[in-house]
Amino acid sequence: MRGLMKTARGPGNLELRDVEDPRPAEDQVLIEVSAAGICGTDVHIKHDQAFYTPPVILGHEYSGEVIEVGRDVSAVNVGDQVVSPATAYCGKCYQCKTGHMNRCTASDKRILGTSLANGAFAKYIVVPEYIVHKVPKGVSEEEAALAEPTACVVHSVIDKSPIQPGDVVVVQGPGTMGLLSAQVAKAMGAGKVILTGVSSDQWRFDIARRAGVDITLDVQAEADPVGLVMDETDGRGADVVIEASGACVACTQALDFVKVSGHVTLLGVRGMSLNIDLDPMVTKELTMSGTWGTLPSSWVTTLRLMSTRKIDVAPLITHRIALSEWERGFELMETQQAIKVLFTDLS
């Protein structure tokens, strides 16, 4: 089979290579990949701006069909449509034993498409049975490929953010994570969701409104974006702000948008040091949370939300291309012409 491989460290070093078809070990399943999405992490790896261990086939957002199972596999069957998180946790370290499997500290931790485990930018992928989740009825193969970023948002927003029915929530950034955050906030009962972005995001705002966002706010064109949020909240400020843009300026603005005794959720990764005044954390008595990855329970909740259509990921899929067109796919992501690019032909 062919796989899109990061062949060595450094910017670039990404190419399609022929590799042997994988075979499942006793506790693994072999999956034929149906669809795989390009994540921001894949782009960062291409540019040598994220952790990875080459050589490795990229891709960790995927869905597929089980075509072979190891002899010790009992809960997954050939023909099942499945998804999985990227990380195979050890279950033995301190973090795993205290319920933080997403922060497993095992030195030989396998991370699909990143380290010690080839990913889903290929026809086949092998994963351990214990991290596999079956795709529920009513969720398409393409939609299921977005379960991984959705589960990351579910862990960040549902597990860590104190959103209550009727709350006003500001989501910063109309990318994949921001658009998913807006829908998750609505599913939690948020009464009003305000999505912020910049002037070049107008086409993303159109998708956001179709996804249920109440108000879109161009922070570049609006003379007083903080004032607009105050007007929409009777002068109080947002109950919760979800920072999903990864932009440094948005962190400062989040502290302005949020109400006294409100909450700020950090979801976007900046990849650089910040020069930010944290005094509002004290003077406004704020709380703040950050998350990384997913927990097994995040996936259960995610797939329930997707199957009941509380979350609709279909509008976020803007491009479907073949793996052979990977350069175009990465260019679409890098130039912000796409929200989610899926490889749907991985032969």
Q: What secondary-structure arrangement, pairings included, does this model have?
A:
Blueprint: E1 2-6, E2 14-18, E3 28-37, H1 40-46, E4 56-57, E5 61-69, E6 81-83, E7 87-88, H2 94-97, E8 110-112, E9 116-117, E10 124-128, E11 133-134, H3 141-144, H4 147-157, E12 168-172, H5 176-187, E13 192-197, H6 202-210, E14 215-218, H7 225-232, E15 238-243, H8 248-257, E16 258-266, H9 279-283, E17 287-290, H10 296-307, E18 317-322, H11 326-334, E19 340-345
Parallel strand pairs: 8-9, 12-13, 12-15, 13-14, 15-16, 16-17, 18-19
Antiparallel strand pairs: 1-2, 1-4, 3-5, 3-10, 3-19, 5-6, 6-11, 7-8
Helix pairs in contact: 4-5, 4-10
Question: What is shown here, in short?
Answer:
The protein has 347 residues and is α/β, with parallel strands linked by helices. It has eleven helices and 19 strands.
Structure write-up:
The chain is an alpha/beta fold and 347 residues long. The protein contains 11 helices and 19 strands. It has helices at 40-46, 94-97, 141-144, 147-157, 176-187, 202-210, 225-232, 248-257, 279-283, 296-307, 326-334; strands at 2-6, 14-18, 28-37, 56-57, 61-69, 81-83, 87-88, 110-112, 116-117, 124-128, 133-134, 168-172, 192-197, 215-218, 238-243, 258-266, 287-290, 317-322, 340-345. Helix 4 crosses helix 5 and helix 4 packs across helix 10 (296-307).
